[in-house]
Every structure is written in structure tokens, then in C-alpha cells.
Amino acid sequence: MAASSSFLSTASLSNPKSTISFASSVSPAPIPSLRRVVFRSPSSHRRVMTVRSKIREIFMPALSSTMTEGKIVSWIKTEGEKLAKGESVVVVESDKADMDVETFYDGYLAAIVVGEGETAPVGAAIGLLAETEAEIEEAKNKAASKPSSSAVVPSPPPATSSPAPAIAQPSPAAAASDGPRKTVATPHAKKLAKQHKVDIGSVAGTGPFGRITASDVEAAAGIAPTVTPPPPPPPPAAAPTPTAKATTTSSPPLLPDASIVPFTAMQSAVSKNMIESLSVPTFRVGYPVNTDALDALYEKVKPKGVTMTALLAKAAGMALAQHPVVNASCKDGKSFSYNSNINVAVAVAINGGLITPVLQDADKLDLYLLSQKWKELVGKARNKQLQPHEYNSGTFTLSNLGMFGVDRFDAILPPGQGAIMAVGASKPTVVADKDGFFSVKNKMLVNVTADHRIVYGADLAAFLQTFAKIVENPDSLTL
Amino acid sequence: LSSIFSLSPDRSLFLTMQSAVALPFSQTPLTRPSRLLGSTGSIFSTPRSLRFCGLRREAFCSSPSTHLTLRSDRVRIPSTRFKVSAAATTNGAPPPKSFDYDLIIIGAGVGGHGAALHAVEKGLKTAIIEGDVVGGTCVNRGCVPSKALLAVSGRMRELQNEHHMKSFGLQVSAAGYDRQGVADHANNLATKIRNNLTNSMKALGVDILTGFGSVLGPQKVKYGKDNIITAKNIIIATGSVPFVPKGIEVDGKTVITSDHALKLESVPDWIAIVGSGYIGLEFSDVYTALGSEVTFIEALDQLMPGFDPEISKLAQRVLINPRKIDYHTGVFASKITPAKDGKPVMIELIDAKTKEHKDTLEVDAALIATGRAPFTNGLGLENVNVVTQRGFIPVDERMRVIDGNGKLVPNLYCIGDANGKLMLAHAASAQGISVVEQVTGRDHVLNHLSIPAACFTHPEISMVGLTEPQAREKGETEGFKVSVAKTSFKANTKALAENEGEGIAKMIYRPDNGEILGVHIFGLHAADLIHEASNAIALGTRIQDIKLAVHAHPTLSEVLDELFKAAKVEGHATTKTVSEKVAV
Fold first, then answer.
1. Are A21 and B484 inside 8 Å of each other by CB?
2. Compositionally biased, Pro residues: which spans (chain A) (predicted)?
3. Among A60, A164, B268, B466, which has the minimal tally of Cβ within 10 Å of its Cβ?
4. Parallel/antiparallel/unpaired status of strands B207-210 and B126-130
């Protein structure tokens, strides 16, 4: 990643929203801040390891944690102008403030890639800095050859992939007359399109008068529409076995008032995985578990921030440690793939979607760390900020519908894993002990679906027995 | 310039007014002797005269000698006033001369009402003529009902902001609204205020005459069909109507003005607002809170022209960018066709400079908020040889009407939107009070630079005096230094307790003598906060004095406290000790 060539530069706030107060009879003094601007030498990653050419790209800095793109308010320096270390080069407007971006290098502003008033995503090159005058030309050529795709030009690109019949238009102005229908998008739709980098020209409008609405853009971007109330959480990874018929094209005609809502990206991913799961021969084993002790423990550790999810993940993790085959997977149909880590994925419903954040090393981390980690993951999942390794590194999945009062259910095995556990609600149940005494105990039914190519009935039964033991004597969980 | 007028006349007029006021100001000696100021301060120490804090009697005196004469003039005042107030007890008795009234006010809006109340207090036999409903634009079709809608939008905004609620630890299920209920609230409020206004005038013995009023000749007024009455002095206070540029067809349903919008007969999915001044901004706040998407059309290159640039920039970040609003600047809406025949509202946009066609918008509704035009037709102005200028009645700084030959028309005054000096309800009222002061023997010139203005968005914007560029320009031409102090709401305890830390206050001042030139606030309750600054400007209070004043903790007013304290007034500026002069 060319770490050796990344440098820091200070930036000064010209519009200090964060400062408490200041008075100025001259211009405000620069306030040092931690915000940084990264200059990267492009040559170091294009050519291997050499930093021969001293042309540096000036990147759009991240001025705040929420900033995804910035607008160039003004270039303080013009192309070809000499820069001294510490001088302000450009003023960038973020979602929060305007900042003067300074250079930490002497040199020349060789080329401006993103002009004033234009926006560029964080990290995109906005200009080139040459070390010597001689290199300005070279830098300019570089800038010219660089496709300025990174810069979002305010005016819509002339040639969009519009499905309208391609009639050569002399000018965009002419298109506004009663020629082919122009795209009309609402303000919110435009904002969303920009935010999600959707080409508005390629979105089909379903709003009144065929206009593109926010939900059209959201559908195109593959996000759950925000206007519709979130449906009741779908059973995580446990839809009642979707049959192959669903995929065949011969779907029955739509009823008159039915509406078609395309899958979001997340929903498409779920759909794909579900179809894939059909190629795995699975079987299921259920087991009743007494949870009185677990419930008591939960009451005790709840004030410390421990969640039931963490308790179950920890218990599953510890049981998996004793039954590595349940934690294995069958990648090619010819071999066992034993995983060195026990990463328990937990299915979560987030509005209109389903995701499985992963608690890594669930057997090793203590309950408190697990709970903390879990909270963090759920927060990230809600904000769509999960990193890939945080949702696709699971070796075993836990799906709990107990909170809805579901007593038992059946989960679909996600591709790439050996087993998934479906946890039902813990309910007071009359039980008879071996001496014939009746008592009321809290019982919870767990049901594990496993890949029978690698996990056999006895394996699964043994695993469940271990799991039940851990849950019924949960002191080991807190160790 | 005409383009500016057609877009947001109210604000741009404010600007022209300010430059007009700046003229006498420029004659002011740069270093005004502060001892003299001190003496004026003592004159104002009687509690009675403090009541008219918005009115600066000696305005900008040009030399110490005039100042002195003014002073001696002022010394006589208490006796005059005493006589007048004695006469007040005989209000209703026939006036000494053969006039029907001492004062007739044409137009019972906020300006006319303010003038009437003050006239009665001064012992004048007063009549007010109203051709429509008491309360005028402000009460019936302006500030008042819009505040009702904004009160709703503020709450909706808060309740819909899940993050905001969560940060309080509150849980609120999805907020919804009943359009008719909201509309009723606005209507009820207007009715209530209208009744209050009417009753207050009736109680004081102001004759409310119904009918359309017009000037027949000097000191003579006609109202209704053929009622002719005479008065010693006449005040025209006929106000304004929404301004609709040509090419725009208003149907009252899909192409509307503020008059229609305040009835809230519909909440369109997508509404274009033509003009991004106060009116447009406030309606954008209402409509977006109620679920509409908004497109602004602004003729100038910047949204929110007329506001201090820094304030409008921040306001844009808070009030425009995160909301479902987009905008077109530097364009005119040359043609707007209401929705009909299954077609949406069509808006033709042309470049403000080149007049070339730029775009066509298709929206569900369009609100024309391009400012307001004076309502002066049929007033009989020709009978007194008065020629309106683009509809506005020309007046001097004392609101005396100027005729076509540039001469003053005796006994005829014009206040409020009809004169266009500063199209704000409270300015009209202040002008009316100023006129009454004059006709009761006390010369008075209103300092318009001390009149605050506010925009009731969430959060609010308020301002008084000059913007930073205006102040810098003035400083350059007159050779004084201009400084700026700023404070953030983020540092204010009360604002943070409300989870409303977004906002700044900004003061433009002279570091050499501590004079406040302008204050601009964007943040929670900005409209209520501005008065400390506007009063300081009206009373001539300097920063070095007001910074010693105490503010309750924790309150939002500490934002201004900090602002005053953040200012750096040069050491030799003398400080007068306020505490000595305040009667306890």
C-alpha cells in the first residue's frame, strides 16, 4: 500500500465550527488539527517500489469521520504556481466545515484534476504536485491521461446509458423541448443517487408522471426503501425451504393490485445463498436443553452488559471446540476442511434484510468481550458499515428466534459451513425426572441443521449433548 | 437591480434602505466624543423614554452643535408631554380644530395598529380604516399563521429525528400528522390574534371604520362608499400583497402564493419554491417537515441572498443540504403553468443573465415567494400629487410622503410595506410610533439599523444591523477598522442540554470604539436572542459596557454574553459606567 510514501499534512480550519469562540481583527489564526491530508506518490504503486518521479497526487482528504466526498471550494494556487511547505493549496468543503488544505512539500502545483465547485470522493486525486518545474509537463500529461471518472462533475454526463431511443441531440437544451422525454428526478432521488453513486439516467422512474423517486433510486442501489415500514424480522436463514420452483420463470400472473418490489442487494445475496444451499445434503437433529441455570446466570451478568446472544455463542463455541467436525466444512465434496478458528456467525434481521455478523474466536473470548464485540457489530450492521470479514468469516451459524416465542424451527445451512443451530424460546415445561417426580423447568429446543457429507447423526447428537451440558452447567461460560 | 427586486424585494429593499441611512451616518465625525454620548445616555434615563428603545431620537447627529440644540429641545419635552397626557383624559371630545379626528390611519395591519395604540396614548382622537380584515398581512396571511405551521414543522422534525430522540433516551413511534388539524391550528391562531388586535383598539377607543380608504385631498379621507372624514394627520399603512412576476399563472391550487400556502390545503409530494428569502425558507422548512420534497429557484447566484454570507453558508448546510431539497440558482422562472389536463406543473427556467432557456421542471406544485409588492392602487394618491415608485410611496426618513415634485406633502405619512423601507411588521409598527411621536411635537427619526429581523426555520436565523461585507465596505470608505467576533452554540450548556448545538452567533463591530455594527445568529431560538443586540444598537450601548452585564446561567442568552466578551475593543476606548445611571 505504499505506506512509505504517505505523509501527513496539517490543515487549518477556516470555518471553525468546533472552536468554542474566537475574536479576530485580522483573519483567524490557523488552528492546528489532527485532520490530515495524504499525499501519495502514484509511481510507487504503479511501478514497483521506486519513487523516482517526484509527482505526487493530492488526495481529497477525509475531514471528518462521516465525510465521503468533498467539494473543492477554491484552489488557492493556480496550475504552475510554486508551493512552499505549509502553504494552503486548496479549500475543501466537507459535510461539516471548510478547510484549508496545506502542503508539506515544496514544489509546484502541476495540474488541477478536480476543478472548483466539483466534488470528489475521499481519497480521489484532486491535483498533482511536481517537485521540479521540469516535471510539470509530465504531471500535466499524466493528469490529462487520467480518466477524471473519480470526479463527480456537477452537470450530468452527456452520454448516459439512457434507455430512450438514441436520437442524436444537437445540445442538451434542445432535449428539454418536447422531444424524447427527459428524466425527471425528485430532489431526494438526486441526493440519494449521488450518495450511492447511481447513474440517475439509468434509473427507471415509477413515480407520478414517470419521475424518478427516492425509492426508485434506492431500488437501483439495492437498498431497502426507507419509506416502507420495516417488515417483521424474517426468520434468519430459516425461510421454510424455498423450493426450486420459485426460481423457475413460469411464475403465475400477478394479481391486479400486486406490486413488484425488486430485491435489494442484500436480499439478492440472501436469495443466491438460499438457492446454493439446495446442493448440500442436509439433515436435522433437535435437542431439548434445560435453561434454568442459564437464565439465572443471565440475570446475574445482564447488568454487566452481557447479552443472551453472547451467552449462546460462547456456549456453542465451547461445544464446537470439543467437536471440531461440526465446525468444519465441505468445500469440494471430497474432503473435510477443518477450521482453525471457531467463528460463530449470528443471524440478525435488519430492516428488510438479513446479515450474519461474526463473533470471531467465540470459544476463546470471554463473555464480556463477546458482548461488547456483539454490540459493536450490530451497530455497524445497522449502519451498513460491516467489513466483509465481519460477516463472511463464520464457521458456524447461530439463529435465535426465541425472543418471538417461536418454540422450534428449522434453519437452512448457509453455503460454506458445516452446521447451523436454530434456537427456540425457553419455556416452562413440566418434566418428570427419573424418580417420577414432576417439576417445571425452563426448556429450550435447539435444532441443528448440518451437512451430512461431513457431519453424521452421531456427531451432531454428541455435539448437542455437549452444548446442553454447557448450558445446563453454565459456570464454565464465565471462566 | 430590477432583477433583485423581482426576486426578493423585501430583503433587497432592506439593503437599499441601509445605504440610504448610511448617508447621514457618513457625516458623523469618526470619533464621536463619548462624553457627549454619556450625556445623551442620561437624558434617556427616564423610564418613560426607555420604552421606545427601538427609536433613536437624535439619530446620527452631524455635529456637536446640533447635538446641543437637540439637547435643549429635549429638555423641554417633559412639559409638552405632560400637557399631552393631560389631554389624553379628554380623548373622544371634539378636537380644537374642526377636524373629525386628530389622526386617521388607512390600513389596520400591524403598522396601523401600533400607530393607533400609540396615538391614543398620546391623547390623539384616532380612527383606523380597514377595507379587509383587521390584522393585515402579518396576522392573517403572514407572520402569524406561518408561525403556527412552523411550530408544527419543528415538532415533526424533532419527532421524526430518531437519532435526536434516542440521544435523549426517548422512544417515539412514527410521528404522523393530520393536515386539516395543522391548517386549523394556523387559522385559529390568526383568528385569535385578530380578535386581540381588534379588542385592544376598541378598548382604547380607536374608531374602526370599515371600508376601502382613499385620500381625497389634504387632510381628507374617503372610506366605504361615500363617507368623507377629515383629520389633522393621515397615515397610509396599506401594506403589501404577494408579488407574482409576469409569466407565472397563479391558480391557487398548484401554483400558489404564501396567501394560499398558509391555508395548507394540500401537502404536495414535490413543490418548487421560487425565491429563497425569508418566505421561501420558512415554507421549505414547513413542507419538508410534512414530507414534501422541495426545489428552490433563485435568481441570484447564491441561495439566501441578503443574509450574512457566513450565516447563509452555514444555514445552507443545516437547512438545505441534509433535507430533501435541491435548487437552481442564477435562473428565473420565466413561465409557470399550473397542473391541468393530466400534466404536472411546468416551470420554464431561463438564465438570469443571458435569458437563455436552461431547463424545464415538472413538479406537483409551485410556491411563488418572490417577495411582496406594495398595495397602493386606488389610494387616491393622485389627489395629493404623489407618484408611486414601482408602487411604493416615496417618503423621507420621517415617513413624510414626498410628492411628484420632490416636496413633502403636509400632514400625510406612509408607514410599513407601502413605503418599502423595511418590509417587516415590527418595522411598520415602529415607523407608526415614530410618526405619532412627530405629530405630537417630538421630532423623531427611526434608526432602521436597529430593527432586528428573523427567519423562523429550525433552527432560526436572526440579524440586526449590517452584514460583514456591508460593514467592511463602510469601514473602508469611512476609514475605520472592522472586527468580527463569533461564538458557537456548541459551547452553550443550554443548547447542548437540548441537543441543539448547531449554530453560531457573529458580531461585527468597531474595535476602536466598541460600536456594534451588526449581529447575526443562526441557532436555537435565534429570533428571541437577537434583541439584546438590537437594543444595544438602538440605545448606542458599546461592547465594553454590555460585556459587563450579567446573564443567567444556564441560558441560551449566554451565547451573546460570550459574543460580547469575545470582542476585542482597543484599550483606550472609554468605558462609561452603566450601573450609575440605572435607577434601581
1. no
2. 227-239
3. A164
4. parallel
The answer to whether the predicted template modeling score (pTM) of the entire model surpasses 0.80 is no
How do residues B309-356 score in pLDDT, each as one tens digit?
A: 999 999 998 999 999 999 999 999 999 999 998 899 999 999 999 999
Q: Which residues of B touch A24 (CB under 8 A)?
A: 483-485
Q: For residue A230, what is the nearest residue in chain B, using CA coordinates?
A: B174
Please enumerate residues of A whose Cβ is less than 8 A from a Cβ of B: 15, 17-25, 95-96, 173, 176, 182, 184, 186-188, 190-191, 207-209, 211, 214, 229
Least Cα distance to B388 among B529, B236, B519 occurs for B236
**Closest CB from B359, B483, B504 relative to A24:** B483
Chain B positions touching A96 (Cβ under 8 A) are 317
CA-based nearest distance A476→chain B, Å? 35
How far apart, in whole angstroms, are the C-alpha atoms of residue B171 and residue B160? Answer: 11
Listed residue (B526, B540, B512, B514) closest to B450, CA to CA: B540
A188 vs B contacts (CB less than 8 Å): 293, 324
Residues recorded for chain B: 584
B483 has a chain A CB within 8 A of its CB: yes
Nearest Cβ partner for A187 among B326, B562, B567: B326
Residue B130 C-alpha cell reads as 380597514
> Which residues on chain A are in Cβ contact (under 8 Å) with B504?
17
Q: Could you tell me the three cell numbers for A242?
A: 424455498
* Residue from the list A17, A187, A208 with its beta carbon closest to the beta carbon of B295: A187
State the Cα angle at A39 between A38 and A40, rounded to 5°.
Answer: 115
Could you tell me where the beta strands, DSSP code E, fall in B191-318? Answer: 207-210, 213-217, 220-223, 227-236, 240-242, 255-257, 270-274, 293-298
Instruction: Map residue B157 onto helix, strand or coil.
Output: helix
Return the SS3 of B267. coil
**Domains present along chain A, CATH in parentheses:** 1-206 (2.40.50.100), 266-478 (3.30.559.10)
| Tens digit of pLDDT at every position of chain A (479 positions) | 444 333 333 334 344 333 333 333 333 344 444 444 445 444 444 434 444 557 778 888 776 666 677 778 788 888 888 888 777 888 887 655 567 777 777 888 888 888 877 778 777 888 888 888 777 777 777 776 654 444 444 433 333 333 333 333 333 333 333 444 577 899 999 888 888 888 888 888 888 888 999 888 888 887 765 444 434 444 444 444 444 444 444 556 667 667 777 777 777 778 888 888 888 999 999 999 999 999 999 998 888 888 888 899 999 999 999 999 999 998 888 889 899 899 999 998 877 778 889 999 998 888 888 999 999 998 888 877 787 788 888 999 999 998 888 999 999 999 889 999 999 998 899 988 888 889 898 999 999 999 999 999 999 999 999 999 999 999 888 87
Annotated catalytic residue B553: yes
CA pair distance B249, B338, nearest whole angstrom: 7
Cα Dmax for chain B: 74
In a 13 Å sphere around the CA of B148, the CA atoms on its Cβ side amount to: 26
CB pairs under 8 A between A and B: 78
